[in-house]
Amino acid sequence: MAERLLYGGRDVAFAPYGEYWRQARRICVVHLLSARRVLSFRRVREEEAATLVARVRAAGGAIDLVEHLTAYSNTVVSRAVFGDESARGLYGDVDRGRALRKLFDDFVELLGQEPMGELLPWLGWVDAVRGLDGKVQRTFEALDSILEKVIDDHRHRRREVGRQMDDDSGGGGGGGGHRDFVDVLLDVNETDKDDAGVHLGTIEIKAIILDMLAAGTDTTTTAMEWAMAELITHRDAMRKAQDEIRAVVGVTGRVTEDHMDRLPYLKAMLKETLRLHPPNPLLVPHVPLADVEILDCMVPAHTRVFINAWTIGRDPTTWGEHAEKFMPERFLNNNLDYKGQDFELIPFGAGRRGCPGIGFAVPTIEMALASLLYYFNWEARPVDRRSKSGTSSLDMSEVNGISVRLKYGLPLMAKSYFS
């Protein structure tokens, strides 16, 4: 599926190890996801968090929070990737924005499917009969046309302004190096392809952009929805997080990223959420380049290997007898982190195949959660389904895929704290 949807493996997440992958990852780390570049999108995160709060307030209490979290993630990532102008064109209309989010959902869902023809080649015709091949082609063509138009628009705008772009006049429209990812990739295409040793053409740019959109939207939304779900079902943790945020921000304040470093309980709560609910429980597939022996088990070269981050995060040998329990306090008095140095907690992977977008994802998640917890009091609302009628406890059933989401969303009641 990655080959069919991501231009034959010209992206970063699924590209085979080799010179192209090394240079493509270097471009992402150095040019797209550096600390300076991530900081340049602070304004975007704060603005979209404020929009998220306004959207929840306008909904009038009873909402499915997942829809709003998805819109927030989509818009933050799209503004970073495409720039403010292009993102407004894509999401400015409510119906168009909803259709585009559905398209990205289909893309992520298809990535997690296994075609019958790959399992049993002689049954490959089943994929055509059940409509899978057609859906893959339609999704790919729709996304490709959007990306082609965005790249063409950027090239047209760059021709109009010449080659005089600098950090204060980039395509993102902001200062401080706030250029969008498409502009940065086009810069690399024009100035760095000889140094990189790879040709970063339009196909490669589109594949890397799709990586950013899929990873940045799906995993971010998944982490936020599980965090809110755990807080709803653990009221003491919810109260502690809200008390901390409201004490730091103040009664008449406004949540900004300046507050995040003074919210240790919020950070511990996010770590605990990622421990219990890594957005991609099996990470991305790994392939050893040579035969390797692990715990007396011989793994032949080129075997597809999956790392079960979900089980590692719940291992009682590491986490004790309460490994299955949601306890943010376990992270308050230690330096355990999720950045790939502590192998008992690897929701973003580790090593050279670890996710390069941690620095972008974490402040995006923290900003949204802090805003929602500061402005609103939350509780589960009664739902009616054939299997469960009128229960006010949150249903934590899961739906499987590359990411593991809540099956029934987040039907919640939001009550404004500052009335």
TrEMBL record:
Pfam families: p450. The keyword Membrane applies. Coiled coil: none annotated. Heme binds at C355. Keywords: Heme, Iron, Membrane, Metal-binding, Monooxygenase, Oxidoreductase, Transmembrane, Transmembrane helix. Its cofactor is heme. SUPFAM superfamilies: Cytochrome P450. One of its GO terms (molecular function) is monooxygenase activity. Belongs to the cytochrome P450 family. This is Cytochrome P450 71A1. It comes from Oryza meridionalis.
